[in-house]
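Quick review question:
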């Protein structure tokens, strides 16, 4: 019953602190401040309850242990752990198991606390999630900079990105059209060089969300900084084979014409390749130098698939420029189109949004602001962002089983946890005004505080 009274006292103390501070200073509080005060006191209650629970777990273990086999080595060893509730300081006892010749903390092993870590796994996951979406420094602000940006960086480095995979669906789908779109983001490295982060995403088409806005249906993102294009496309092919029955499916592949993107044509024989409309218009715009008339004529010719007319327009446009740089740009633009003539399709039937997805998935974190990456760091953040946009659960990325199994040092009849549950797990009692102290009950029964406020 002692534990029950301790819990009740902790709850009463928090209720009193919140309500007393509000009703005695009602003029100085608004709704948001009341919420902040309540959150602050609730977090303190959570910290105290966790400390009490850990203390009770260790007490139960101490009573049930084999006193001859498991002996006390040191008492009062402290450990501080940062959590979402705040900093929790635990008092633990160090035990020694004679049979296993091993020292251990009962609470650490029973609750699977990671050795030497001062940050709770849930908070670690939230910090990594924040660092995936923003900078390491801003992620540290999640807990009022109680950890440094370097600590957040180290947490990100702990993640095994090879295991970051969202489970596939249980059944393969049969659809008429499947779309693969690809592009790359260009990032700066910390050795003054540059690198590409490649992005491929697979989806089942688009659907209208609201006026002027659409979204992809079941998108799946793949990223890499590696030059191993074969391995990259193999991952995409494996995903498609395990999730779709493609025998009667038309696969559409689109991109800007880069060699690594066209490599996918060989991976998916019979797929339809489309040159990204964004890069087509960009190439024509750069070659026309603001001449809207020529630009409209060239685009019209490409829409009609009249490539001889498009070539003639480029040739005539070339003659109107005398600067070598401008002529070179016009020639390069036509060569770009000529090398991809078969894949040019400016009809409204098919569109590619790869450039926008590169901006959203990669550039927003990796290249929109001046920053220098290592290849390993860029790969890790890119994989984490893909995991995020694939709907991955960050709360599970640090799940690990304990290194030291307590089952080995507990006797077979060790069941104090079940005993505790049956003894203390009882229906909760609703605490009303009469259950509180005279101090807080008097304040709540009185209308003086409210009258003085109005």
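Suggested answer, residue by residue:
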């Amino acid at each position: 019953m002692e534990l029950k009274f301790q819990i009740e006292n902790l709850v009463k103390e928090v209720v009193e602190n919140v309500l007393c501070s509000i009703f005695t200073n009602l003029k100085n509080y608004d709704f948001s401040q009341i919420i902040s005060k309540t959150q602050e006191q609730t977090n303190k209650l959570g910290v105290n309850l966790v400390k009490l629970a850990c203390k009770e777990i260790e007490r139960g273990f101490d009573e049930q242990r084999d006193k001859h086999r498991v002996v006390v080595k040191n008492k009062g060893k402290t450990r501080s752990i940062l959590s979402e509730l705040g900093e929790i300081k635990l008092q633990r006892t160090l035990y020694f198991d004679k049979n296993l010749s091993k020292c251990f903390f009962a609470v650490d092993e029973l609750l699977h606390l990671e050795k030497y870590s001062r940050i709770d796994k849930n908070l670690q996951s939230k910090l990594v999630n924040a660092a995936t979406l923003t900078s390491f420094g801003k992620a540290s602000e999640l807990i009022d900079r109680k950890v440094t940006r370097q600590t957040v960086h180290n947490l990100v480095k702990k993640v095994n990105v090879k295991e970051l995979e969202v489970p596939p669906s249980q059944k393969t789908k049969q659809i008429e059209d499947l779309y693969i779109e690809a592009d790359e983001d260009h990032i700066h490295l910390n050795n003054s060089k540059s690198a590409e982060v490649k992005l491929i995403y697979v989806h089942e088409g688009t659907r209208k969300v609201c006026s002027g806005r659409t979204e992809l249906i079941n998108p799946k993102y793949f990223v890499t900084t590696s030059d191993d294009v074969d391995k990259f496309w193999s991952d995409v092919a494996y995903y498609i084979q395990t999730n779709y029955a493609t025998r009667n499916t038309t696969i559409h592949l689109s991109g800007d014409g880069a060699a690594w993107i066209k490599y996918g044509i060989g991976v998916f024989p019979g797929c339809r390749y489309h040159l990204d409309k964004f890069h087509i218009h960009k190439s024509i715009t750069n070659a026309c130098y603001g001449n809207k008339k020529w630009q409209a004529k060239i685009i019209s010719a490409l829409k009609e698939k009249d490539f001889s007319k498009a070539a003639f327009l480029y040739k005539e446009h070339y003659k109107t420029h005398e600067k070598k740089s401008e002529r070179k740009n016009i020639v390069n633009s036509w060569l770009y189109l000529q090398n991809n003539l078969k894949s040019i399709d400016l009809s409204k039937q098919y569109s590619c949004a790869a450039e926008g997805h590169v901006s959203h998935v990669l550039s927003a974190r990796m290249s929109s602001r001046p920053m220098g990456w290592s290849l390993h760091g860029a790969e890790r953040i890119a994989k984490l962002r893909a995991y995020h946009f694939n709907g991955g659960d960050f709360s599970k990325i640090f799940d690990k089983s304990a290194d030291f199994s307590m089952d080995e040092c507990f006797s077979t009849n060790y069941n104090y946890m079940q005993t505790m549950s049956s003894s203390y797990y009882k229906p909760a009692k609703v605490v009303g005004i009469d259950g509180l102290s005279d101090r807080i009950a008097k304040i709540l029964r009185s209308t003086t505080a409210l009258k003085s406020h109005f």
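Why it works: The radius of gyration is 32 Å. The longest helix spans residues 31-64.
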